[in-house]
Amino acid sequence: METTFYDAVGGDSFFERLVDEFYDAVERDELLRPMYPEDLTESRRHLTTFLIQYWGGPRTYMEERGHPRLRLRHAPFRITRGARDSWLAAMNSALANGRHSLNDEQFEELSSYFEMAANQMRNV
Length: 124
Description:
Layout lengths: L4 H5 L2 H17 L12 H14 L5 H6 L4 H5 L6 H17 L6 H18 L3
């Protein structure tokens, strides 16, 4: 059986740490913070389960929320170049903090995905 990316990076615990680091940065970001609800618990859970599913783990996100429809879910928010850059900086910081647990190929694959996703969410 082929090992998934999810398994190779450490499963749930890797993605939970990544998302926690990301949202810690979001909480400190003046541009991003107003785009999120006051309580980030559900936002953290949604991103964690989405990433777990995307990278080959359990399909909890799909079971609970249906198809991701990322552009549609983000449409109500003005995602400018600045918002994209702030989001990407927060995610890259989180990714860099977990760098020690990734090999170069894994780090590059995640970085490339996040850059692509951030660019696709821009709507202004």
